[in-house]
Each structure stands twice: as C-alpha cells, then as structure tokens.
C-alpha cells in the first residue's frame, strides 16, 4: 500500500507545486481510488481545493468521515469559502451533544495548525456576530503564531485596541530555552554559514510559492547543489545511520528507503516522475538507497509543499525513527530538511549514553550541517542575484509583500525553533558548537527583524482602524524606504489621508501606488472616491478602464467604475455598477455604501436605507454606512434617529469633524442649540479649517439671534472659502437682520455673482422667504442640503465649492 | 412429461402470467371433469395458480386461492393415508409437495394478509403452524406481527427463536432490544458466533449501541456509535450514520443530526430510511427549499414509502399549508402505519387546524410507537394547552419528567407548562434555572426564561441572560428578544443593531421587522411624521424593487427585501 502511495503522493505534491492542478487532481484521484486511505482523501481534497474547486473538496470531505485534524481544517475552510458558516463551526468545534469544544481543546487537537484553525474560527464567529468570541480566537491564534497578519487585521477591524508590541513577539511558548549568549561572528566562513542558515527557509519557500515558473538556470543550480550536498554528506551520515541502527531503535530506517525506488519503477521510471525537482533528480542519480541525502531531499521537497513545517512532527522525529521511513507520506510527517539532517541530535538528548559514538565525534555533525548550509547558501545566492536581493541577512524579508513576509518568517521561525531545540539539546548533553549559537542569534535577529516590521505596520494599521489618521500616517511613513514604497503601505497612507479629507495628498499617494503596483486592486475604491471628490474625471475613467480590464471579479474594479459614472452624472449606470460590485462580492461593505449614496442622490431613500443597512450587516464598524443612515433619517426629518446613527458613526470614528458637524446640525434641529454649538466647537477644535463646521456654527448662531458672533464666524469662513456663494448669502442675511440693508444686498449680489446658475433660484427663494421671519431656520437648513444634493447639476467650476457641498454632505466618506 | 410438470417448469422459470392463464384453464378442466387430475395434481395446480396471482399483486385473490389449495391439501391427506400404504407414484410427487409444502403455503397466505394489513388473520394463519415446524422466516414474520399487535411476550420468544437459528439476524436483535430485552441477554445469544468469526468483534459494541438507543440513553448511544464509526472497518456506513443522526436528533442536537443525515444521503443517494426525520429537521430550521428538493428526489426513488410523503408534508406544514400537510401525512400513514414522523405531522397539522381532539389521538399513537421521542410529548402537551387542559398537560409533563429523567429538555417542557398557569410561575422559574444549569446554551430554555423575565419586567437580567446565550451561538430569536429588551430599557441604538442581526440571520422574521418598525415609530418626534412614514412604508419599497425589469436589480432586490419593507 505504502509502496504505491509514497511515490504517487510525492508526484502529486510535485504537480501541485508546479501549479499543474489537472495532473495533481488526476493522480490524486487515482491514488484515492487505489488505496482509499484518509491520507489519500486529504491529498485529493487538497488538490481540489488548490485548484480552486472548494465545493469539490467540500463534497468529498463531507461524504467521508474524516477524523484527522487536517481534514477537518480543510473541510471547515471549504465551508467558510462556500459560506456555510454554521457547518464550518460545527466541524471545528462541534463535539457530541451540543457541547462545544473549548479553544484549549482545539489547540491540543490541532497542534501546530491550531493558530490557523483559531483564526478561521474567529472569522466564523465574527461573521455570525459573536464578536467577543471571535476576538478571543484571533488573539489566541496570534499568541500561538505571531507571524499571522490576518487575525491581527481582523482584530483591528473589530475595533479591538491591541498593543502590537504584545502581539508580535515571541512568547515563551515559542522559545523553550532562553536565548544563548551572543557570540560575535569572528570567522568569515562561519558567518557565511549562518547567512545560509537563515536563508534556508526562504529557499524552501521559493520552491513552494514562487519561482518554479521559470528558469533552467535555477534548476541546474539546484540540482547541482543537492548533488554536491549528498555527495558531501554521504560518508558521514552513513556512520550516523549505523549508529542509530546499532542503537536498535528500529530497522525500518534502513529498510524503508528502498521503497520509493520500487514505487518509482511503478510509475515508469524516475524521469517520468520529475525531471524538474532537484530531489528527484538526485534520486535518480543516487545509487545507494540508504543515503540520507536522498531522505533529506525527498522530505525537503515534500516539505516545500507545507508552508509551515510542523513543530510537532519535528519533535516526533526524535523518539521514533520510523518516521524517517514515512517521510514520503508528505502529510503526517514533514520533517523540515534541516532537522532532518540533524535527525539524530534530539535523540542524543533523550538517550545520551546510547549515542555516545555520535557524540564522541562532534565534528561529525558540524561539517554535515555546514555542507548543507553551504549548498543552500549557494543556491540562495543565485536566488538573490536574480531577485536583486541584498545578501545581508537582515534584509531577507525586505522586498516581500506583507503576507509573504509573514510566511517566510513563519518557516523561519520554525526552523529557528528546531535549531534552538536541537542546539539546546546538544548543548545540554555536550556543550559545544559555537556556530550553533551564532546561527541561533542570527536566526533570532532575523525573526526579530520581521517581528519588528510587523509591529510597526501593525501599529500603523491599528491607528488607521481607530481613525487616528495622523498617527497612522506618521507611523507608516516612518517605515524603511523599501517597505514604504510598497503598495500595501502606500495604500494605507492614502486611505489615512482620505479619511482626513486631504484628497490631494491622498491622490498623490495613490497615484504612487498605481505607479509601483499597477496590479493592485485593494484600496483602489478609495482612490476612486478620492478622484471623485477631486472631480478628476479623466483619471477616474482611466483607472476604471484599467481595473475592469484587469480583474472583472473584484468588487473594487466595479466600485471604481460606478464612481466614474457617478461623477458623470450617470446615476443609473453607476447604480448598476455598484450592484455588480455587490454581486461579485456580497461581503464588500463599501460597495453597499456607495450604492446607498447613489440611491440617496436619486432620492430613492428606502433603497438607500436598505443599502446602508446591508453595509452595516456586512461590517458593523463601517462608519460611512452609519453616517449614510443618519443622513437619510435626517432627510426624512427623523432627527433623533439621525442623531443616534451619527453618534454611532462618531463612536467608530471619533476624530471625524464631519460627523461632529452633522451631529451638531441634528441637535440644532432637535432644538438643542446649546449642545449643538458645543458639538460644533468640538468639531472645529479637531479640524479648525473645516468650512462646513464653521458654516453650520454660523447659521446656528444666526438662528439663535447671536448675530455678531455669526458675523464674525462668517468673516473667518470667508477667509477659508472666499468663493463660496452661500457664505455671502448668509452674511447678507445677518446684515439684513442687523438692519444694514445695503450691506445685506451687497452680499446677496456677491452670492449671486459667484453662483449665477445653480443655486440661483433657491437663493432668490430664500431672499423672498427672508421676509417671512417665522420659518427662517428650516429654510436655511433645507436650502443647504438641497443645494448639496443639487450641486452636481449645477456644474461647479470651483473646486472649493464642490468640496463644500458634494463632498461634505453627500459622499465625504 | 405431463401438463402439470410443464406448468411447474413455467412457474419455476418465472413465467407467471403464462402460468396464470394455463393453470386457470386446467383448473376449469379439472372441475368439469374431476377424473382428469389426481387430487395432489390439483393441489399443485392451485398453488401455481395462486402464486401467479400473488405475483400479479392481487393479494386478496391470491390468499383465497392459497386457502383453496390448503383445502385441497386436506383432501389429499385424508386419501393419502390409503394411498401411501398402496405406494405408487407418490414418491415422484413428494419432492414437489415438499417444495409446495403446506407451511410454505401458509406463509404465503400470511404474507398476503400482512400486505392487506389484516394482521390478525395473518397471525391466526401462522399460529396454526406447529412451533416445531416454523422456519426462521415464519418466526420473524410472526414476531414482527406480534410486536405490532402489542403481544410483547410472544414477540420476544419468536425473535429469540429466530436468533437461535440464525445468530446474525440483526433485525431480530433490534426487535428484541426495542422490546426492552436487556442488551446483555441478546449479546449472550450471539456470543458464540462473534467469537468464532474473525473481524466481527464490533458486533457486541453494535448490540450495546442499539441497546442504549432503545433504552433512551442518548448520550451513551452516541458515544458507542461514534466509537463504532471510528473503527476504520465501519467508517462511512450509511446505516450507522442514520442511526447516529437519529440519536443526535433525539438528544436535541439538531446541528450534528443534520450533518450526519447529510453525510449519509451523500454517501447513498437512494437512502430512504430516516430521511423523514432529516426533512423534518431541515424544515424546522427553515431550509424549505432544500426540503422541497429532497422530497422531490425521494419521490423519484419510491412513492410507496412514507418518507417522501412526510417530507413534502413537512414542507407544506412549514409553509403554513396545513390542510395539504394533513393530506400528505394521512397518505404517509396509509403507506406505513408505523411512521412516527407521519403521525406527528398529521397531528401537528390537525392541531393547527383547530381539530385538537383528533390531533391528540395521533400524538398518542406516536407516543406509543416511540416512547423515547420528546417531540411526541411536546405535541401532545401543546394540544392540551390549546384546548385549555392545563391539568392534563401538567400531568403529561410530570410524566415525561419522571420517565425520561431530569434533563434540560424535560425540565424545559415542564417549565413551559408551568408558565401557562399563573400559580406556578415560581416553579417554572426554578425549573428553567435548573435546565439552564445543565445546558446553558439550550435555546428553548433561554427563550422561555427570557419570556418570563420580560413578563416580570426584569429587563437587565434578561439582557444579561440573552447576551450570555448569544456568546456561544447566534440565533435569530435570541437576537430579536434581546432587541425587544433593549427597546424596553430605551437603548435604541443597540436594539437596532440586534434587530438587524436577527434579520440578517433570518430575513423573513416578521417579529424583528415589527420590532424595528415599532421602535422607529417610537423614535419619531411627532405623530404627524409617524403617519407619513406609515404611508411611505406601504407605498414604496418592495413592489418597486421586484418590478425592476433588470435582472440584476431583481436578484439584488431579494437581498434587500427585508430592508425594503421598512
């Protein structure tokens, strides 16, 4: 059974690695038909899932009882993908009889994949409105694996106030032993060695993720590398093997390596298997079946599939030797290459007296590792030169995007942990190996580096999620240049500027993003709204065309298109595009909000209401939608409801002067003029230059017969927005009240000069109504909002004008 | 080769329609000229004829013909005393007579009667067979008939007889266990076989599992079946899965139950057994479309089973078409009078149509058939409550409480009854607390407790309770109730949130919508605007959305329907 299974499994994994999903699926199907084991089931499901057919994996796993944690995790993942959340939760936590497993149970059950499991579970909880539990899960997940970004991101979205310094650090859980004293890398070779050591996981990562698309050059380099590797290694591990066997641990170690060979012949020769991977190339060349070089490569290649080599399995290597034989399973045991080559080391700690022959000759271990390291160093050196990477170790994660960095770090961490363990055990029993220490320290340095980066970005991201935009900008701008100039960082800085309503700044940053990563879609919806505010229709339509051509399945592209048409006053088309965005991804809150604004513009208030509610349903911290709801209630003159919603929005985004301003207006409408003035003062305190706040303060003052104060306010306002007709209009009214008719008329005529077309009628109307003193206030308010709604028809020429109206009152968010 | 032998061959070859015509002609010949065939030949002819009719599914006719054959047999036995002494060609016939033995004919008659639902006649016929001559087949049928007729002792002895002859007769084992024979006793009867055959060691566990199932010990039944299922040899067995799902259902674990049923029917798409419960569960959970699909699928497999009828009955019931549900339930009962689910469906339909007394009869029958199922009792209690029979309801609830033990479900049922009576409010509260102490997440208990608290206007306590319950699960009703509570304490903001969550879980939840609208009205500053809003609500919204010719818009409108009704 295993005879057949091992090579086929290897072949499947290899096909998966080379994105040959069809082949992988076919082979895995054959394998499953042949052996029908749970492993094969898992492999087949994995193939389905990776080829993007989550439903296939779901059906397959659901039909067959799968008890292993991996299967259950995959099934839950599929459930989430297919939005069967309750079922996913049941799969992960459901015990018998309504008893839910606690998170600790999950941790023990899922072992080293628990962090991912918990993250998934947290996602489910959040989607089903159990925020407290969700955030608990995310935090546990981060605790277990500080290199995970998405749980942190989710926590930020939940509005949790986390300390990134506490989150992104190695807890005692990760480091069983205290870091050994640092020893300066005195010797050049050893230093280089360590560099190599640190790059090792990257190598596997490369294998795993990226580069197989290409390059004979790399291939040859790799194969030669491992060739050298094995040849260099072979004398030494043989003795090691002899040792282990003489220890009588099991005979399986020597017995097993034959199996893959026979298996390969089943598949019709090594060439059929893989001309590509180094591991198989070596296999074909390698005459001696007992050579651990084979094992190493073999498992190494397998390991490459598993992004995070399991700590557990590594620890398993020590006590049970048979693990080696099964390494071809690829699922159950994935010893990472490094620990593999050192496989006997932990053993030494468990039974030192037996292993004395090995320990007598410590150089035995060292050169072995060094050769391996050396080889991987050369391979990564090639990598580096190809990718223009710095050779300096601390720069490893630099050129990577966020998640990739996390992944690298992850494997890095595991590697380092193993090394830590191994070395500590060696240290315990023997107390030797300086290079080991060095590698540890350097490993630590690398992980610390990654964690430091995560902390920085985390702090920035969190500030942004709490809408401390200034802080977010300052944190994110202070990251090193190579990080700064990535799409992720710039997008978020742009978003921060956007939230601050500094649209020109935001636009600059976003256009930089476009330049660096033209393929980036995340955040482009914000960019498009920025352009909408700035009325840059040409840039907006170019962006829209670009994105919709590039990716028709992302909601952002359709949001951009919708914004584009919205700017062209084609509201019906815009609505269609926003609806398309929702159709593409029903979980995209911003699309609902934009659609809601669009409906509000076309006066379909009920539908707009529905849209905003949907947005809140999707993400209840989406303050724009709360704002939208408040806006609509305001229009319907349900002022207290409007206040509730504005306050909710404010509680999410406490720094928003716009929100405060609206609350002030609503409070005024509720005849709570004092608190309204207070609120507006607060708003102006936050943003002294916000013309809308000042305008409202002025009109409230005016309504409360504090003409002098109103006049002063308006004079200040005139300095900020000198071309705003409404300001002059209000000044006129104030003068009128003060009885200075000629000044009033002068200001009215200025107002009409400034805005001869659009608001003309209303101004006239208002002037007429001025003679009906009893309902002055409603006129002003109505007038303001009406004009805000109409402003688009009135083809503004003045940017400031448009900003005051359209931006602030309709779509600022 | 004489003509009888030809007929025999044809019958053996399965040419029943031909046999029917031929034997009918021959029998007429024989009756017109009795000399033509010997009595034993005539007997044979009659049996072949009856067989042919049996295959044509004319059971009453067949039973009559079989009886005629038996009558003929009596004639032979009288004359044969003379003949056997004289010897002759009887030896040739004897083998055929064995084949068409009297016992076999009696079994056939009993079979006809069972199909015709004339159980008493069937038992009478089979009883006529001396117990030493009964084959396992006869014993099995007899046992089933006894059990159905309620003669438990005779049924047990018949089942035991079957087991003695065939130790692996698992249906007989289930029958015994269902008649509350001890698991150990049953196991002892199969012990020898288990030990002698390799790979059958699971059988004792299997017996144990079903013993627990029939003893109503759900928890241990689940554990035992799970342990069976974990064994790789029995992995993905459909029958086990269905049993497991059923036990989960009885234990009130709907989620797990649905999952297992789903798995079972994915493994075996032609599965019929147990699907009625699956359909009922899904309908109860509100997946009506799935129920409809399932019903249609099962009708394609067979419409001669009760299950598809029950499933579409459930669909009608939960879409509030009670008379249709009643008809479908009646049809299901007609097909299988032992179907508990069909009885429950019909009972519930009758109750909702106001025919409480009839409903009570159905629930009682269901109770008799499945004494371990709580929903039978619940249905009955609902009936009593509907007809103001609080005392009966109380008696029944106490009865369950005593017979099935004090678990969260029984406690809640009892508390529900207590809640109806203003005198026993305090007792209800104590019971609910007890239930919640056992199972803090039991939704029914939480709902009842919350109702109680809202009646007592202890809103803060209610909010705490609901929030607590919602920490572990999300349930539309709970969110809505929390919303109601929050409105009561004037926390409109939070209440709005809770209503929207409730609506996002179940977009058709009328009560949440009402709550939300009520709140909006309360919120509105003046009466004038309220009325205006009311007009708006009716005037706009849904119709407009649905009329939209654009398909995209229409699709999308589905999502926003519940919002659009605002």
Could you characterize what this model shows?
The complex is a heterodimer of chains A (813) and B (566). Chain A is an all-alpha fold. Helices cover 74% and strands 0% of the residues of chain A. Chain A contains 48 helices and no strands. The two termini of chain A are 62 Å apart. In chain A, 54% of the residues are buried. Chain B has helices at residues 3-12, 16-32, 39-55, 59-86, 90-99, 102-115, 119-127, 136-149, 152-165, 170-178, 183-196, 202-215, 218-230, 238-250, 254-267, 275-285, 288-301, 306-318, 322-335, 340-352, 356-369, 374-386, 390-404, 408-420, 425-438, 443-455, 459-470, 476-488, 492-505, 510-523, 527-539, 542-547, 551-564. Chains A and B meet through helix 4, helix 6, helix 35, helix 37 and helix 39 of A and helix 13, helix 15, helix 29, helix 31 and helix 33 of B.
Which key terms come to mind for this protein?
heterodimer, A: about 800 residues, mainly alpha, about 75% helix, elongated, B: about 575 residues, disordered C terminus
Structure in a nutshell:
By secondary structure, chain A is an all-alpha fold.
Please render the helix and strand layout as text.
The complex is a heterodimer of chains A (813) and B (566).
Chain A: H1 2-17, H2 21-35, H3 38-50, H4 54-63, H5 69-81, H6 85-93, H7 103-110, H8 114-127, H9 131-144, H10 150-157, H11 164-167, H12 188-210, H13 216-233, H14 235-246, H15 252-255, H16 258-266, H17 269-273, H18 278-285, H19 292-305, H20 311-317, H21 322-326, H22 337-341, H23 344-350, H24 356-360, H25 362-387, H26 402-429, H27 434-465, H28 469-477, H29 481-484, H30 487-499, H31 503-516, H32 524-534, H33 537-550, H34 555-567, H35 571-584, H36 589-601, H37 605-618, H38 623-635, H39 639-652, H40 657-669, H41 673-686, H42 691-703, H43 707-720, H44 725-738, H45 741-754, H46 760-769, H47 776-790, H48 799-811
Helix pairs in contact in A: 1-2, 1-3, 1-16, 1-19, 2-3, 3-4, 3-5, 4-5, 5-6, 6-8, 7-8, 8-9, 9-10, 10-27, 12-19, 12-25, 12-26, 12-27, 13-18, 13-19, 13-25, 18-19, 23-26, 26-27, 27-28, 28-30, 30-31, 30-32, 31-32, 32-33, 32-34, 33-34, 34-35, 34-36, 35-36, 36-37, 36-38, 37-38, 38-39, 39-40, ...
Chain B: H1 3-12, H2 16-32, H3 39-55, H4 59-86, H5 90-99, H6 102-115, H7 119-127, H8 136-149, H9 152-165, H10 170-178, H11 183-196, H12 202-215, H13 218-230, H14 238-250, H15 254-267, H16 275-285, H17 288-301, H18 306-318, H19 322-335, H20 340-352, H21 356-369, H22 374-386, H23 390-404, H24 408-420, H25 425-438, H26 443-455, H27 459-470, H28 476-488, H29 492-505, H30 510-523, H31 527-539, H32 542-547, H33 551-564
């Amino acid at each position: 059974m295993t005879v057949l299974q091992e090579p086929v499994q290897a072949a499947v994994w290899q096909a998966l690695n080379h994105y040959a999903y069809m082949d992988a699926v076919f082979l895995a199907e054959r394998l499953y038909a042949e052996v029908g084991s749970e492993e094969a089931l898992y492999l087949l499901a994995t193939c389905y899932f990776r080829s993007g057919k989550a439903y296939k994996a779901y059906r397959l796993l659901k039909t067959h009882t799968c008890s292993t944690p991996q299967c259950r995790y995959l099934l839950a993942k599929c459930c989430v993908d297919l939005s069967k959340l309750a079922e996913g939760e049941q799969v992960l936590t459901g015990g018998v009889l309504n008893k839910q497993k606690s998170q600790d149970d999950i941790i023990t059950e899922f072992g080293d994949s628990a962090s991912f499991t918990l993250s998934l579970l947290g996602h489910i909880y959040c989607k089903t409105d159990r925020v407290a539990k969700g955030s608990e899960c995310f935090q546990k997940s981060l605790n277990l694996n500080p290199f995970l970004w998405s749980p942190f991101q989710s926590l930020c979205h939940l509005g949790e106030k986390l300390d990134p310094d506490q989150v992104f650090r190695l807890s005692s859980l990760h480091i069983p032993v205290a870091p050994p004293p640092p020893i300066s890398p005195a010797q050049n070779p050893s230093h280089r060695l360590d560099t190599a050591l640190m790059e090792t996981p990257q190598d596997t990562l490369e294998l795993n993720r990226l580069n197989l698309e290409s390059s004979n050059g790399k291939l040859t380099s790799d194969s030669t590398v491992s060739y050298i590797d094995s040849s260099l290694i072979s004398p030494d591990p043989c003795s090691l093997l002899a040792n282990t066997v003489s220890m009588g641990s099991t005979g399986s170690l020597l017995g097993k390596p034959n199996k893959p060979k026979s298996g390969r012949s089943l598949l019709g020769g090594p060439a059929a298997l893989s001309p590509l991977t180094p591991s198989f190339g070596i296999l074909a060349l390698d005459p001696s079946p007992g050579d651990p070089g084979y094992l190493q490569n073999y498992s190494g290649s397998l390991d490459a599939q598993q992004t995070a080599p399991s700590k557990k399995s590594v620890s398993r290597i020590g006590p049970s030797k048979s693990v080696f034989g099964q390494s071809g399973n690829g699922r159950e045991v994935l010893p990472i290459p490094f620990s593999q080559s050192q496989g006997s080391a932990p053993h030494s700690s468990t039974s030192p007296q037996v292993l004395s022959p090995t320990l007598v000759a410590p150089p035995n271990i060292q050169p072995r590792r060094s050769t391996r390291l050396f080889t991987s160093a050369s391979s990564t050196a090639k990598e580096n030169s190809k990718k223009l990477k710095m050779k300096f170790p601390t720069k490893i994660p630099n050129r990577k995007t966020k998640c990739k960095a996390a992944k690298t770090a992850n494997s890095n961490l595991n590697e380092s942990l193993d090394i830590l363990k191994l070395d500590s055990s060696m240290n315990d029993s023997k107390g030797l190996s300086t290079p080991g220490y060095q590698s540890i320290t350097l490993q630590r340095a690398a992980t610390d580096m990654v964690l430091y980066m995560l902390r920085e970005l985390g702090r920035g991201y969190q500030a942004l999620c709490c809408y401390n935009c200034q802080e977010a900008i300052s944190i994110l701008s202070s990251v090193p240049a190579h990080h700064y100039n990535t799409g992720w960082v710039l997008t978020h800085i742009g978003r921060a500027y956007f939230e601050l309503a500094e649209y020109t700044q935001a636009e600059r940053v976003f256009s930089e993003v476009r330049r660096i990563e033209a393929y980036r879609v995340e955040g482009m919806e914000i960019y498009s709204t920025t352009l909408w505010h700035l009325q840059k229709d040409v840039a907006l339509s170019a962006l829209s065309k670009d994105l919709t051509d590039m990716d028709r399945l992302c909601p952002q592209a359709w949001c951009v298109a919708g914004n584009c048409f919205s700017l062209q006053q084609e509201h019906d088309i815009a609505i269609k595009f926003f609806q398309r965005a929702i159709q593409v991804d029903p979980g995209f809150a911003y699309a609902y909000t934009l659609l809601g604004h669009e409906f509000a513009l076309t006066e379909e208030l009920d539908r707009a209401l529905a849209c905003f509610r949907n947005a809140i349903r999707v993400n209840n911290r989406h303050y724009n939608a709360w704002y939208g709801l408040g806006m609509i209630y305001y229009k319907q003159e349900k002022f207290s409801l409007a206040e509730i919603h504005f306050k909710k929005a404010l509680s999410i985004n406490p720094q928003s002067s716009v929100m405060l301003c609206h609350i002030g207006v609503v409070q005024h409408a509720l005849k709570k003029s004092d608190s309204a003035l207070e609120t507006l003062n607060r708003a102006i305190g936050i943003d002294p230059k916000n013309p809308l706040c000042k305008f409202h303060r002025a009109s409230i003052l005016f309504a409360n017969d504090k003409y002098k104060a109103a006049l002063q306010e308006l004079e200040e306002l005139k300095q900020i927005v000198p071309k705003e007709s409404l300001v002059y209009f209000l000044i006129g009214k104030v003068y009128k009240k003060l009885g200075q008719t000629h000044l009033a008329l002068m200001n009215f005529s200025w107002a009409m000069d400034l805005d001869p077309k659009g608001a003309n009628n209303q101004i006239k109307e208002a002037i007429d109504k001025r003679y009906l003193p009893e309902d002055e206030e409603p006129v002003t308010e109505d007038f303001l909002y009406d004009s805000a709604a109409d402003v688009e028809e009135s083809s503004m020429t003045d940017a400031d004008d448009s900003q005051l109206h359209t931006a602030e009152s309709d779509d600022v968010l | 080769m004489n003509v009888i032998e030809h007929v025999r061959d044809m019958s053996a070859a399965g040419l029943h329609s031909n046999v029917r015509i031929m034997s009918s002609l021959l029998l007429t010949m024989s009756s017109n000229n009795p000399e033509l065939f010997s009595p034993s030949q005539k007997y044979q002819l009659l049996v072949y004829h009856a067989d042919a009719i049996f295959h044509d599914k004319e059971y009453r006719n067949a039973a009559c013909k079989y009886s005629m054959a038996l009558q003929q047999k009596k004639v032979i036995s009288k004359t044969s005393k003379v003949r056997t002494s004289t010897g002759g060609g009887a030896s040739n016939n004897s083998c055929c007579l064995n084949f068409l033995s009297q016992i076999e004919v009696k079994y056939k008659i009993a079979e006809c009667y069972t199909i015709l639902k004339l159980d008493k006649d069937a038992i009478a016929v089979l009883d006529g067979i001396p117990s030493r001559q009964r084959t396992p087949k006869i014993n099995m049928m007899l046992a089933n008939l006894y059990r159905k007729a309620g003669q438990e002792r005779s049924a047990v002895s018949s089942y035991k007889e079957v087991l003695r002859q065939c130790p692996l007769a698992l249906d007989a084992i289930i029958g015994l266990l269902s008649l509350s024979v001890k698991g150990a006793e049953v196991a002892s009867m199969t012990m020898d076989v288990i030990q002698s055959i390799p790979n059958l060691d699971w059988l004792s566990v299997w017996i144990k599992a079903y013993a627990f199932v029939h003893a109503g010990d759900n928890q241990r039944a689940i554990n035992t079946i799970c342990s069976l299922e974990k064994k790789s040899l029995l992995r993905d067995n459909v029958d086990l899965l269905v049993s497991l799902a059923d036990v989960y259902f009885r234990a009130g674990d709907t989620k797990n139950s649905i999952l297992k049923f789903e798995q079972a029917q994915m493994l075996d798409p032609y599965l019929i057994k147990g699907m009625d419960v699956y359909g009922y569960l899904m309908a109860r959970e509100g997946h009506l479309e799935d129920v409809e699909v399932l019903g249609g699928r099962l009708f394609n497999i067979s419409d001669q089973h009760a299950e598809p009828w029950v499933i579409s009955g459930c669909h009608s019931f939960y879409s509030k078409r009670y008379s249709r549900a009643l008809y479908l339930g009646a049809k299901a009962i007609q097909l299988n009078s032992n179907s508990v689910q069909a009885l429950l469906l019909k009972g519930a339909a009758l109750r909702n149509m106001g025919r409480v007394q009839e409903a009570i009869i159905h629930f009682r029958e269901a109770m008799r058939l499945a004494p371990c199922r709580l929903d039978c009792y619940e249905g009955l209690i609902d009936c009593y409550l509907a007809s103001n029979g609080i005392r009966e309801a109380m008696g029944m609830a106490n009865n369950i409480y005593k017979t099935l033990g004090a678990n969260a479900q029984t406690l809640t049922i009892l508390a529900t009854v207590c809640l109806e009576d203003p005198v026993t409010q305090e007792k209800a509260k104590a019971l609910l607390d007890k239930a919640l102490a056992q199972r803090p997440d039991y939704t029914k208990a939480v709902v009842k407790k919350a109702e109680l608290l809202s009646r007592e206007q202890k809103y803060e306590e209610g909010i705490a309770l609901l929030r607590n319950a919602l920490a572990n699960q999300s349930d539309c009703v709970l969110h809505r109730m929390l919303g109601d509570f929050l409105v009561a304490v004037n926390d409109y903001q939070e209440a709005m949130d809770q209503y929207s969550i409730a609506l996002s879980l179940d977009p058709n939840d009328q009560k949440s919508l009402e709550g939300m609208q009520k709140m909006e009205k309360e919120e509105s500053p003046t009466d004038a605007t309220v009325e205006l809003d009311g007009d708006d609500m009716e005037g706009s919204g849904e119709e407009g959305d649905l009329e939209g010719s654009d398909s995209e818009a229409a699709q999308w409108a589905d999502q926003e329907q519940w919002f659009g009704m605002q």
